[in-house]
Design a protein that fits this description.
- The complex is a heterodimer.
- Helix content of chain A is 34%, strand content 26%.
- By secondary structure, chain A is an alpha/beta fold.
- Chain A folds into 2 domains: 232 residues, Rossmann fold (3-Layer(aba) Sandwich); 235 residues, 3-Layer(aba) Sandwich (Rossmann fold), CATH 3.40.50.300.
- In chain A, helix 12 runs parallel beside helix 14 and helix 13 packs across helix 14.
- Chain B has 13 helices and 2 strands.
- The mean pLDDT of chain B is 92.
- Chain B has a domain of 244 residues: ABC transporter involved in vitamin B12 uptake, BtuC, CATH 1.10.3470.
- Chain B is globular, with a radius of gyration of 22 Å.
- The chains are: A alpha/beta, B mainly alpha.
- The interface between A and B is medium-sized, with 34 and 27 residues.
Chain lengths: 493, 354
């Protein structure tokens, strides 16, 4: 084989006691797409941050085109030809596509609009994208914004492109287009790294696959040698994972949530019912009205029109006298921003919604809470298992486990779970599904998810949302309807 | 070649953040010494005179303690608001209203016994200070005003009210036209501790600090304030009453500053006069930051910055350095401490470049 575009050798990096990367050696080749697969906290992000110049390894070497390099800063990495497409786009909303593409680039003081426009158009043509250079970023869809990010890198002549879970924010169509772009870039000699949790995607697009586990590369192989996603999943978590969980049908009992003709922001005339003993899955592409629905149901926004009843009480009554136990548990998608306080310890974060259970009079019984929380830490295998650690020290997956442990501890009768497994690895995903199914014995669950596999695995009934409306609600067992979900999500009915 | 890199800290700094504060204060001292050198005062001698003046004698230390008491109480107050990220710059005005409230009681009921009069003065001072603090809070939550601007502006209003009263209806008829109230009755004065010149306000500080510490560490409301202060969105998520919390912290903040006003009027000057307003409420902000909002560190920092005030008086007498020098030093300290905050989240790393 030719010299690899990037050769990582014996890279190690620790954060305090946590070894995020241990002795990692990896080759990235020109003209090929390498998929990087691994559990949460397996060290993928750390490794890529090292490559992007954001972090410096404690030991090990990086060779670009056979030459040893020290990527001491992001500038250095960019000038070496390494570009990263982050999950959160780094674009200026109030500027146009071409201005963003040329942003931050050293060059002449004056800008030549004409030349900028031509460059953007020719670059996007070259890689099979469609882009109008004069559009403002604020007016673009997520997929288009991502294309701008890619154009930025292409314009900087990046030869090694890293995509950090690029499909998380895309519709299936957009994802398909992205894959075509990635393929075309690879064909034109670029080296591509693709980080993903979605096994099907990896099987579709990758040429090579590297599997990370606990900070080390445990497997590295061409895709040809992998026969199925199941095999890949097994290699990734180190044990057989069945993506099917046993769902024993239950008799739905009393109604815990009733939404009637609710209109709020771009949500239109939504009605639904959730009963104890069932999981109602809300499926659909993000941004089709799920957010206002959840925010109203969870008390973050007052309903503008229509009626919402929780556990038999009116919205107003329910939220005026919320109870910590046997009430509503909300597991939001935004763990860092909404469900936790990053500057507080795990113990204090545990108390965030359970505080009423640990207070007598004005006093907060921290010792009691500490004992209970300690147990939960071990039960849910949250790392580090230290109640005095700060929330900002935890990885996203561990933070989510912390939130889940706290919310399940409250023995809720109504659970609203929003993308509960997003960004989690397969093993954790399965655990969470089992927890939801178990919780269903006592609770009614509203599960908002963009992942159809998840919805089909755990839900008893499904509601499809499109354009702010609930298109249809049907039982999971109704195979005819289930087959049409894709069309309903796309607004074809 | 040595190559400098800025790295975000992965572990909390813990007690070592003290070192950062000490470094910042040392740097501020260095700048101040340079300033002395610029105006022709020997810097070394200047700093020595400053320290001797502040901590060099029993009298000086007692004076430091007397000045530290109002600074401490104001700072304890602003720290409560700062916890919730409500920027109360109005301690000066709340202090003033506290002094007014206490004076009103003292002048209205001069013949009541101390056990009745002093608690009544405290109550009135804290109510007046607390309500003065509540105004910017209500405006902020109901009309989206900026509490920094409003609380700052209200300081000037408070001082003008004080002037109006001592030049007008409260003026002592026997004061030969000086703007001051009559002296308080014996019962309205907080006494001195033993044979020292330090008043019992010191004990008030210790008790109030303990209460604040217990409040934040052991009560549900205190915990809820901490959570809201860290993340407002999470507060909404957890159903915390954010509006009420803002009102609460501003009332508590104002009440503590008002208490300071009571002690200053009752124990230190024994009457109300315009010279009572010497900027303790502003020093309190510097102190709160120096102490990272921790009640015990606020105690230490209050004493040190009170020392700065006392020391500068000495500097003025011995080396003819203008009084404004104290304010400049205070400014230096605040700036270096704020800049030092950078080192609490980041560190430098030197790597050998190949």
């Amino acid at each position: 084989m030719t010299t690899p575009a990037v050769r990582l050798q014996h890279i190690s990096k620790s954060f305090g006691k946590v070894k995020a990367n241990q002795d990692i050696s990896l080759d990235i080749h020109k003209g090929r797409i390498l998929a990087l697969l691994g559990e949460n906290g397996a060290g993928k992000s750390t490794l890529m941050s090292i490559l992007a110049g954001q972090l410096q390894p404690d030991s090990g070497t990086i060779a670009i085109d056979g030459e040893n390099m020290e990527l001491s800063s992001t500038d250095k990495a960019i000038s070496t030809g390494i570009g990263m497409v982050y999950q959160h786009f780094q674009l200026v909303d109030a500027m146009t596509v071409m201005e963003n593409v040329f942003l931050g680039k050293a060059g002449s003081f004056l800008l030549d609009k004409k030349a900028m426009e031509e460059e953007v158009i020719s670059l996007s043509r070259q890689y099979g994208m469609q882009m109008s250079p004069a559009k403002y970023i604020a007016d673009l869809s997520m997929g288009e914004k991502q294309q701008v990010e890619i154009l930025k890198l292409l314009h900087r002549r990046s030869n090694i492109l890293i995509f950090d879970e690029p499909t998380a924010v895309l519709t299936p169509e957009e994802a398909k287009a992205l894959f075509a772009t990635m393929r075309s870039m690879a064909d034109q000699g670029k080296a591509i790294v693709f980080i993903s949790h979605k096994l099907e995607e990896v099987m579709t697009i990758a040429d090579d696959i590297a599997v990370l586990r606990r900070g080390a590369v445990v497997d590295s192989m061409p895709k040809k040698s992998v026969s199925s996603t199941a095999e890949l999943a097994e290699r990734m978590v180190g044990r057989e994972v069945l993506l099917k969980v046993d769902r024993i049908p239950m008799e739905p009992r009393q109604m815990v949530l009733k939404v009637e003709n609710l209109s709020h922001q771009h949500l239109q005339d939504a009605s639904l019912i959730v009963r104890q003993g069932e999981i109602l899955g809300i499926v659909g592409v993000a941004g089709n009205g799920q957010k206002p629905l959840v925010e109203v149901v969870c008390g973050l926004q007052q309903p503008q029109q229509g009626e919402v009843q929780l556990l038999g009480k009116d919205w107003q009554d329910f939220f005026a006298s919320r109870k910590w136990k046997n009430g509503l548990s909300y597991i939001p998608e935004d763990r860092q921003g909404l469900a936790t306080c990053r500057g507080l310890t795990l113990l204090d974060n545990f108390l965030l919604t359970t505080r009423d259970g640990f207070s007598s009079g004005p006093w907060l019984q921290r010792q009691d809470a500490r004992q209970k929380a300690e147990k939960l830490l071990h039960e849910f295998d949250i790392r580090p298992p230290d109640l005095d650690a700060f929330a900002w020290q935890l990885s996203g997956g561990n933070l989510q486990k912390m939130v889940l442990s706290r919310e399940f501890y409250r023995q809720p009768h109504l659970i609203v779970a929003e993308q509960p497994t997003q960004g989690l690895d397969i093993a954790a995903m399965e655990d969470i599904w089992k927890l939801l199914l178990k919780a269903r014995e006592e609770a009614g669950i509203l599960l908002v998810t963009g992942d159809l596999t998840e919805a089909l695995a755990v839900c008893d009934r499904l509601a499809v949302m499109y354009g702010g409306r609930i298109v249809d609600t049907f039982a999971r067992s109704n195979q005819e309807k289930v087959d049409q979900i894709g069309q309903m999500m796309a607004g074809i009915s | 070649m040595l190559h400098l890199r800025i790295i975000k800290r992965q572990d909390p700094l813990g007690w070592r953040s003290c070192l950062v504060i000490f470094g910042a204060v040392a740097l501020a001292l260095f700048f101040s010494a340079m300033l002395l050198a610029l105006r022709g005062t020997p810097p070394q001698e200047g700093i020595i005179v400053l320290f001797k003046g502040a901590f060099g004698s029993r009298w000086a230390i007692e004076d430091c303690l007397i000045k530290a008491i109002p600074i401490f109480l104001c700072s304890l107050g602003v720290a409560i608001a700062f916890r919730l990220q409500i920027w109360n710059i109005g301690a000066e005005g709340q202090f003033c209203l506290g002094a007014l409230g206490a004076t009103w009681i003292a002048l209205s009921f001069p013949d009541q016994p101390a056990w009745l009069l002093l608690p009544a003065m405290i109550a009135m001072a804290t109510v007046a200070g607390g309500l003065w603090g509540l105004i910017p809070a209500v405006l902020r939550q109901k009309m989206q005003t900026n509490e920094i601007i409003v609380s700052l502006m209200m300081n000037y209003i408070a001082i003008l009210i004080l002037d109006y009263l001592v030049y007008g209806i409260w003026k002592d008829p026997t004061s030969f036209g000086f703007p001051m109230t009559p002296e308080f009755s014996e019962a309205a004065i907080v006494g001195k501790i033993g044979s020292t010149s330090v008043n019992w306000g010191l004990a008030h500080c210790v008790i109030l600090a303990l209460i604040v510490w217990i409040f934040f560490g052991y009560t549900k409301t205190g915990y809820e304030l901490k959570a809201s202060g860290d993340n407002v969105k999470a507060a909404r998520y957890a159903g915390l009453p954010y509006n009420k919390q803002v009102f609460l912290v501003m009332v508590l903040s104002g009440a503590l500053a008002g208490w300071a006003g009571f002690i200053e009027a009752s124990a230190t000057v024994n009457r109300l006069q315009p010279s009572i307003m010497v900027g303790y409420g502003y020093t309190a902000i510097v102190v709160a930051w120096l102490a990272s909002l921790n009640p015990f560190y606020i105690g230490i920092a209050s004493f040190l910055l009170a020392g700065l005030r006392v020391g500068v008086e000495n500097l003025q007498l011995d080396l003819q350095v203008p009084a404004a020098f104290g304010g400049i030093m205070e400014g230096f300290i605040l700036l270096t401490v704020l800049a030092g905050g950078f080192f609490i989240s980041y560190r430098f790393s030197f790597a050998q470049k190949k």
